[in-house]
Amino acid sequence: MVPKVHILASIPPFLLLYYFYGNLSLVFILGSILIDIDHILWYFLRHKSLNLRKAYQYHRPGGSNEKDILHIFHTIESWVLFLFLSFFHKFLLFLFLGMTFHLIMDVYDMYKYHYSDIRAISLLRWIKRHI
Questions:
Q1: pTM above 0.90, yes or no
Q2: Cα dist. 108→21, 113, 115 in Å?
Q3: CB 43 within 8 A of CB 69
Q4: Helix count (H) and strand count (E) of the chain?
Q5: 48: domain range?
Q6: Least crowded by CB within 10 Å, which of 46, 80, 100, 120?
Q7: Contacting residues for 2 by C-beta, under 8 A, at least 6 apart
């Protein structure tokens, strides 16, 4: 899903959270957008380039023929870690909520457009396949 859609879709829940929690709800937006930093990390590790435009194109459907891409913050293990950490501080709870919102949108998009096979869902399974 494109960043613009993630940003626009995050605004209504952000506004709702802002009504109840004020500035802390900004962390929700951070979690729902910055989770995609792993796309840039993957592109950098593969191509030794921090060209954001090329990284964006690479991760668009059809932008790469690569399968089994590892987006570390999009894995089950990362999600479970942030879930666990969310019990210890409100900042981490809102970060987790933003990440979860982002992942729900990604999963919907992947199945809607039939490209669910290009991203690794589990870090441990990805490591097992590549050792």
A1: no
A2: 28, 9, 11
A3: no
A4: 7, 0
A5: 3-129
A6: 80
A7: 60
Looking at beta carbons, which pairs linking 65-68 to residues 24 or more positions away fall under 8 Å? Answer: 66/118, 67/117, 67/118, 68/118, 68/119, 68/120, 68/126, 68/129
Length reported for the chain: 131
Select from 126, 113, 130, 125 the least CA-distant residue to 60: 113
Rounded CA-CA distance 88/91 in Å is 9
Domain count within the chain: 1
Q: Tens-digit pLDDT profile for the chain (131 aa)?
A: 688 888 999 999 999 999 999 999 999 999 999 999 999 999 999 999 999 999 999 988 778 888 888 999 999 999 999 999 999 999 999 999 999 999 999 888 877 776 666 778 899 999 998 88
